[in-house]
Amino acid sequence: MTVLDGGSDAQKDEILSRICAGTIFMTMGLTEASVTTEPWGVETTATRQGNNFQISGTKLFVPDAETADIIIVAARTSSESDPDKGVSLFLVPATLTVCLLDQ
């Protein structure tokens, strides 16, 4: 539902049709060492690097990460004074060589 609610039209067209067809599988990486999925507990950061973002952090308990094509990752993009704000969701291809899975 995250792509449906917040994705661009291009993301909706490409990703949702492939999910419905069963050709890609997505999962979510939300939980961190604080063992919460609440925004205030997000310590993973995303820093803009030109047109892209560099995401740094660790996610725990990512269901079916080993078979997913895309992982939806929550990361802090701003240092808002309100810890419940400043968190964004990113679609991260699970095939990136920087995605390390430890079971």
Briefly, what is this?
The chain is 17% helix and 27% strand. The chain has 103 residues and is an alpha+beta fold.
What's the mean pLDDT score?
Answer: 85
CATH topology of the domain at 25-93: Butyryl-CoA Dehydrogenase, subunit A, domain 2
* Structural classification: alpha+beta
% residues in beta strands: 25-35%
Question: Could you give a short account of the major beta sheet?
Answer: 3 strands, mixed
Approximate shape: globular
Q: Walk across the major sheet and give the strand order.
A: 1-4-5
How would you describe the overall organization of this protein?
The chain is of the alpha+beta class and 103 residues long. It has a domain of 69 residues: Butyryl-CoA Dehydrogenase, subunit A, domain 2 (Beta Barrel). Helix content is 17%, strand content 27%. It has a 3-stranded mixed beta sheet, with no helix packed on it. The protein has a two-stranded antiparallel sheet with strand order 2-3. 15% of the residues are buried. The mean pLDDT is 85.
SSE map:
Elements: H1 2-6, H2 9-21, E1 26-29, E2 45-49, E3 52-56, E4 70-76, E5 87-93
Parallel strand pairs: 1-4
Antiparallel strand pairs: 2-3, 4-5
Provide tags for this entry.
about 100 residues, Butyryl-CoA Dehydrogenase, subunit A, domain 2, 5 strands, about 25% strand, globular
